[in-house]
């Protein structure tokens, strides 16, 4: 195991809880104030539009984290739900004449309803098959939305009418910036509430060891399905808001594996176990993407950069920035949190390392492989 | 325990603002409004991706226009400077590009991109910033149905009228020679479909039966099954509503099946200089509509062909000419109104174009209230290995070959 | 719909299925030796096609000759990739993380192709591009026959290698039961590296075959990965013969469905088969014991 010792310290909370509520509140207020004042300090409309794009990423990756973070099921195909949300919003407005924001909420509910049967099918399988299914979902929706031109507009795309036709473009961006900020706040609140509930405990149990959770009486399938549907709901709302803001939907961009992978990258980079992880990841990756497009606009180098970043995150910090920073902080503050925030496998490695440190014979590599193999076998 | 997470979020958000603002400031400030500053014109073009071949043609046309204008002392005594971004043939990028050009770089004027699919989203950006928007390539009917008030199409005719002369010719053939059946294959793209379906409508009304009618998405590369259907239908004529690479692939697939129609017409692709090489030089008899000929006798055209040939070594094609025309149209408005900057000036430019006719390399152009030009396209054909005008009779360079020799 | 059209489609379907089979066999190898779902497989396929195109562009020689460079090169890259990257992942989350890691590699390849060769669509123009043979009334393009022949020969070679050689025996043992293989003295890490190399070599061959008769562009690999994933799931994850049979069946199905449904809808056959398999027979239709673990 090449990355043995750096994970030995349990990755607990970043700060001990006794630091107190006031500090946390102040930090939250300052953070929120910074975000909310952005439209006022943005030097030109382009920067403001880039800000909206970043917030769009933020809501998508936060929504993704409802399933990725709580259950550990990595879906590369969440663009399916943002795309469906966008198209449902657009089609409700253009075909059914529903007012813009009613259409947005209806679209979210419709997509959430659609996610139930899809979730039932997809969550039956684990590991590799779940990822393949999630990718296939995006590809199949791309085909359907490209081909069913009479209904969806096909490759010509769908033009979504403006919700505020009288606004000039900079004002339009500002309104949507605050709409996005509001949606993100709701999503974060929902995450926070679930995180503290029994339901959230059950989900995290699934993430750490699904079979054990099941044998202990957690209704794993129902829990996974609920998390999946909530995730689909917020993803669809994000997609619908994008449709209202951007105005043109093209299947190739709505149902893009790349968008789905950005959600994963952002959440992983920030840290999928943390409330603000995806948000942080979205700020970093989203800003980097925009700067990259500005500096290297006419090349494909932004793909290379995104790929490199994803590779680095997967190889060197699969738990994200927040735990990595947390490790740093803990060096100065050697208190252990009582809540275990590591996977079962990590714990195994840690225990082995401890055993080795205590002078017992180190476990041979074959044993470690066998252990992991057993685990894979258990996940039948 | 989440406190630092929140704090960090604030820091990162702040850093994001700073980073973006910084990069914003460093690049802005290129275009003041003083009389000596150049007039900066913002353009986004598909230099890579699905539309990159025609996109590069449009770029050459714009560059030729800028050079001709600057050699003559510029517009309103100011030099013109093009700022061209690559939108990778993507609607998301084209919007971001114009957003950047207008909102951040504060360009004085904008020109349109290539392809209808990119024109509609980008026209909305221009419209909402109140910019005049003259475009070289949005010929499909949808473009003019969006209610844009600042949009003008700088070419002789909209897509559905491109084949008008060919339809007249086919329907005027004696009954024993007239084709009985036709096969259509069109990209799911408003422009490409518009050309093919414009002809289809007229031929069906004239009694030519449609035996194959296929639509494929823009990213299609496998044309075997479409070609197999066309070949097995033995249609007398084949019409492709195509851009560039799809036409090449379809033709090669048809050749592989040894299908020999009496007439083969494809939009856009045959006018591309690479076309002949790409299909193995088996071009004889292939037809294409065009809005432009280098031999047209309009005064500015002679100048354009000379200047372009001197600059790029080859005579211009249709994409280049449409781009040049776009430049001419905007220049005429700027000279007449006497201003070129963002703000009220743009509305004056729009109003002027609404009420006037502009002389261009494709002839005098005027527009209806939605920005549709009022004209028609010529028909070209590969005759003796050269692409030449064959219809209408008064401008033809060679006689039309019918039926087409085998490929 | 005429009989010749159907026959024509069957021939085209078999030719296409051959290429799918070769590529799916590569994907199966990675999964077999390392439990890795290799998203970058089709990106390497497109990379090989670009190298063939570039080779033809620069030298004017037949693109098939580029195989002498790309096959050893890709084999090496595969071994290095397995040894340096895949083994670094934590075993417990290997399957999920390997998907993300290979996804990242796919993005890097696509980006570099776009950077070096631009997004312009490319196509090799050979003197025999448009020629075809008459096969019982169906027209078969020469380039397609060559591509199929290449795929068939490679698959046969792979089959013989797996069944007849000592290395093949060790590889199969590793796929079936890693620990048991280790106990009999097989260096499974080495074998896994070679398995990866073989998989990538199959992408090199497939890419060259593809370049003969297809337009290529950097993002084309997304177009291939979906069908290939569907094939290995339907065939049973980890089963090479299963993947080959599924590839043939689905390739044929796609080709025939194009007649009534058109090109785009016909592609859905892969995803319908994928969802159907997962719903009714998650271990795949031709897979062995291995597939049931996932």
Automatic annotation (TrEMBL), chain A:
Concerning InterPro entries, the annotation shows:
ABC_transp_permease, LivM-like
Name the record gives this protein = Branched-chain amino acid ABC transporter permease
Location of the region described as Disordered in the Swiss-Prot/TrEMBL record: 355-380
Q: CDD domains from the entry?
A: TM_PBP1_LivM_like
Q: What is the lineage of its organism?
A: Bacteria, Bacillati, Actinomycetota, Actinomycetes, Micromonosporales
The record lists the membrane-crossing segments as 23-42, 54-81, 101-123, 130-151, 175-194, 225-245, 251-268, 275-292, 304-329
Q: Which organism does this record belong to?
A: Polymorphospora lycopeni
UniProt keywords (A-Z) are: Cell membrane, Membrane, Transmembrane, Transmembrane helix
Location comes to: Cell membrane
Extent of Low complexity compositional bias:
355-371
Q: Does the keyword Magnesium apply?
A: no
The topology of this chain with respect to the membrane is: Multi-pass membrane protein
Keyword Membrane included in the entry's annotation: yes
Database matches in Pfam families = BPD_transp_2
Source domain of life: Bacteria
UniProtKB/TrEMBL annotation, chain C:
Q: Which domain of life is it from?
A: Bacteria
| Topology term for the membrane | Multi-pass membrane protein
**Any transmembrane segments, and where?**
6-29, 36-55, 67-86, 98-118, 138-162, 191-212, 224-252, 259-280
Asked whether the UniProt record includes Acyltransferase among its keywords, one would answer: no
A single Pfam family, by name? Answer: BPD_transp_2
- What keywords does the record list, in alphabetical order? Amino-acid transport, Cell membrane, Membrane, Transmembrane, Transmembrane helix, Transport
Location within or outside the cell = Cell membrane
Q: Which family does it belong to?
A: Belongs to the binding-protein-dependent transport system permease family. LivHM subfamily.
UniProt-recorded name of the protein: Branched-chain amino acid ABC transporter permease
Where does this protein come from, organism-wise? Polymorphospora lycopeni
